[in-house]
Amino acid sequence: xxxxxxxxxxxxxxxxxxxxxxxxxxxxxxxxxxxxxxxxxxxxxxxxxxxxxxxxxxxxxxxxxxxxxxx
Length: 71
What we know:
mainly alpha
């Protein structure tokens, strides 16, 4: 994956997480559950943002992430 695509995905994921956070904090009208599960959207967006940040680090250092065991 290229640097440009990684940065675009990182920005999109952070923006989606921020939107989900804003939508969660809005007062609800009545007791009906929201149509979109904003908590799940926010969790997925944060995970994607963390993965893209880790990929940026591996692109910056030039060494792919291998983990503790070297796999």
